[in-house]
Specification:
Distance between the termini: 35 Å
Oligomer: single chain
Number of helices: 17
Mean pLDDT: 91
Strand content: 15-25%
CATH class of the largest domain: Alpha Beta
Number of strands: 22
Radius of gyration: 24 Å
Length: 530
C-alpha cells in the first residue's frame, strides 16, 4: 500500500470515447494540455502515480478502479470499538528511508513515539521483536526462555539466506529446504527430551515466515534471490486513524472526477491507432466491463500480480511479450489472511503483545496433514494483541497463510467463531473460556480483482522476472510511441516487493518515466509558480 501534498489543484481528465451525458468535468477535460494518461487501479501505487503526475504538470490523468473504494490492499474497517486493518497493517521499517513513513509524518498521522529517532534506528530485520506468550496445543503455557536458543538459531539461519545473492545455490533451491538442512545439522546437539517440542516450535516459526512472505510454504520461496529483499530499520508502527487515512490524504487534493469507481477494465488494446473525440489518434484504448471505452497516450497498470496471473492472457491485445508472460508465471503470489476476534474480557495478561501457538506433534521435517477441513487451524502460529485496548477493545489478530488461509475463506463466520472458541479453550486449558463476541476476517484470495495478498520470488524465478514485469511496452526503445503501457505495483519492485512502500515507490517510478518524457509540462508548472 502515500504521496506528498499536491502543490496545485489541477483540472482536466481523459475522456471516455462515450462520455457520460451531462458530465461537465469530463467535458472540461477536452481542453487539457499534455498527454492523456490512464491509471488502472486506485491502490496506493495508482494514487501515488496520479499525485506525482499532477504535481509535475501532466494534468490529463484519470484512474479507473474496479471496486467501489480506493486503497486496494490497504483497507481500514470499523470493528469492536475502533478501526482495524483488513489489509496492510504496519509501516515496515518506519525510518527516513521509507517514503510511507516520511509521508505519514508529514501528514501528522503517527503518534509521537513513532517519530522518535531511537525507534527509527531499531532494526528488527522485518520480524516480530516482542517476547511472546506461548501456549501449546495440550493446554500448557510455555516459557519463552525455553525457546530462546532455538529462536536465535532460526533467525540466524534466515540471516544466512541473504548470503546467496552472489551465488552458491541453484534456481531450484528454496528457503525452506535450506532451513530444513540447518535443522537436520543442528538437532543432534539438542536435549533429546526437548527435541519434539523444539521441532513443533520451529514448525510454528516457519508458518509465521509463510505469513511474512505471503506463501503456502517456504519451499516455494527461492533461496538465491531471497537476500535481494531489503528491510529498513525502524520499529514497525501503525496508523491511529487507520492506514486509509494516508490514502485519503494523498487523494484529497486530486480534482473531482480523477477517480472513477466501479469501473472494471476488461481489456487494454495497445500499439494501435484509436481516434479520440478531439480528432487525435491515440495508441491505446481501454475497454471496461460496463461497455465504456477510453483512449490514451499512456496507461499505467497497477493491478495485483494475482489478477495478472488469472487474466493477463486475455487482458492485453496484442498479447504481452514472452518475457513478461514468463515473469507473471514465474513469480509467486500467495494469500495471507487475518482473523480478528473481539473478546468481552481479555484472557491474556495486560502486558501481553503476542500470543504464539505451538502445535505438539508437528515438525518442519514432515509434511503437514492434508485434511484442510480438520487441520486448517494448525497453520495458525501467532495472534497479535491490538493496541491500545481502551480505543479498540480487547481484540486479537491472527495470521494465516497458504492453502489453509484460502480454505478459511470458504467457511462462515459462525464456523470460524466456533473453531476459534475451541482453539482458545484448548490452548488455555479452560473449557469454560467465554467465546469471542465478534469476528471479522480478510478474504483476499477470493477477491476477484486481487486473487491473494502479495508477491514473492518463487523457486525458478529471480529478480530479473521482477524487472521484466516492470518493463514498459512496447519494449523496443526505437518505437514510434514508446511507453504506451507501464506497470507498477508492489510486485514490480525488486528490493521492496510485498510492501506498501514498494507499491508507493513503483507508482512514483512509473510517473517519473512520463515526467521525464514530457519536460515541457513541468516547465509550465514551474513558470506558473513564478
Amino acid at each position: 500500500m502515500q504521496a506528498r501534498r499536491l502543490l496545485l489543484l489541477l483540472l482536466a481528465l481523459p475522456l471516455a470515447v462515450h462520455p457520460d451525458p451531462g458530465s461537465e468535468e469530463r467535458l472540461e477535460a477536452m481542453a487539457a494540455p499534455g498527454p492523456r494518461v490512464l491509471i488502472i487501479g486506485a491502490g496506493i501505487s495508482g494514487i501515488a502515480a496520479a499525485e506525482k503526475l499532477h504535481r509535475h504538470g501532466l494534468q490529463n490523468t484519470q484512474i479507473l478502479e474496479a471496486t467501489g473504494r480506493t486503497g486496494g490492499r490497504i483497507r481500514s474497517q470499523r470493528f469492536a470499538k475502533g478501526l482495524v486493518e483488513i489489509g496492510a497493517q504496519w509501516i515496515h521499517g518506519p525510518s527516513q528511508g521509507n517514503p510511507v513513513f516520511r509521508l505519514a509524518a508529514q501528514f501528522g498521522l503517527l503518534v509521537p513515539d513513532a517519530l522518535l529517532e531511537e525507534n527509527q534506528r531499531i532494526n528488527v530485520g522485518g520480524h516480530p521483536s516482542a517476547i511472546p506468550v506461548i501456549y501449546s496445543s495440550s493446554g500448557t503455557k510455555l516459557s519463552p526462555d525455553a525457546f530462546a536458543n532455538i529462536t536465535r538459531l532460526f533467525y540466524s539461519w534466515l540471516e544466512e539466506t541473504k548470503n546467496f545473492t552472489g551465488g552458491g545455490c541453484t534456481p531450484e533451491d528454496s528457503v525452506g529446504s535450506f532451513i530444513r538442512q540447518k535443522i537436520v545439522q543442528s538437532s543432534p546437539d539438542w536435549d533429546k527430551e526437548l527435541a519434539d517440542i523444539n521441532m513443533a516450535f520451529l514448525r510454528g516459526l516457519l508458518n509465521l515466515e509463510c505469513c511474512v512472505s505471503g506463501t503456502h510454504s517456504m519451499d516455494y520461496v527461492a533461496l538465491c534471490p531471497f537476500g535481494e529483499y531489503t528491510t529498513l530499520p525502524g520499529l514497525d508502527c501503525t496508523f491511529p486513524k487507520g492506514y486509509e487515512s494516508l490514502v485519503n490524504q494523498m487523494k484529497a487534493p486530486l480534482p473531482g472526477g480523477s477517480v472513477l469507481l466501479n469501473k472494471a477494465v476488461q481489456s487494454i488494446h495497445w500499439n494501435g491507432s484509436f481516434p479520440g473525440e478531439d480528432s487525435h489518434i491515440y495508441p491505446v484504448k481501454v475497454t471496461c466491463e460496463d461497455g465504456d471505452s477510453f483512449v490514451a497516450d499512456h496507461v499505467i497498470v497497477t493491478v495485483p500480480l494475482g489478477f495478472l496471473k488469472k487474466r493477463s492472457s486475455d487482458f492485453f491485445s496484442p498479447p504481452l511479450p514472452p518475457s513478461k508472460t514468463q515473469a507473471i508465471k514465474n513469480l509467486g503470489f500467495g494469500t495471507n489472511n487475518k482473523i480478528l476476534l473481539e473478546f468481552e474480557k481479555p484472557f491474556w495478561d495486560p502486558n501481553t503483545t503476542v500470543i504464539q501457538l505451538v502445535w505438539e506433534g508437528d515438525s518442519p521435517l514432515t509434511a503437514p496433514k492434508k485434511d484442510l477441513k480438520k487441520n486448517w487451524m494448525r497453520k495458525l502460529s501467532v495472534f497479535v494483541v491490538l493496541e491500545p485496548p481502551e480505543q479498540l477493545g480487547h481484540v486479537l489478530c491472527g495470521f494465516l497463510a497458504g492453502e489453509e488461509s484460502e480454505f478459511m475463506e470458504t467457511l462462515t463466520d459462525e464456523e470460524i467463531l466456533s473453531s476459534m472458541t475451541d482453539l482458545f479453550r484448548r490452548l488455555t486449558g479452560d473449557p469454560e473460556l467465554p467465546p469471542p463476541i465478534g469476528i471479522v476476517r480478510s478474504q483476499w484470495h477470493s477477491q476477484p480483482y486481487t486473487g491473494g495478498s502479495y508477491s514473492y520470488v518463487a523457486v525458478g524465478s529471480s529478480g530479473i522476472d521482477v524487472e521484466n514485469l516492470a518493463e514498459p511496452l512496447p519494449t523496443d526503445q526505437e518505437a514510434l510511441k514508446p511507453m504506451q503501457v507501464l506497470f507498477a505495483g508492489e510486485a514490480t519492485e525488486r528490493n521492496f516487493y510485498s510492501t506498501t512502500h514498494g507499491a508507493l515507490m513503483s507508482g512514483w517510478r512509473e510517473a517519473q518515466r512520463l515526467i521525464d518524457r514530457y519536460p515541457e509540462c513541468w516547465a509550465n508548472v514551474s513558470k506558473a509558480k513564478l
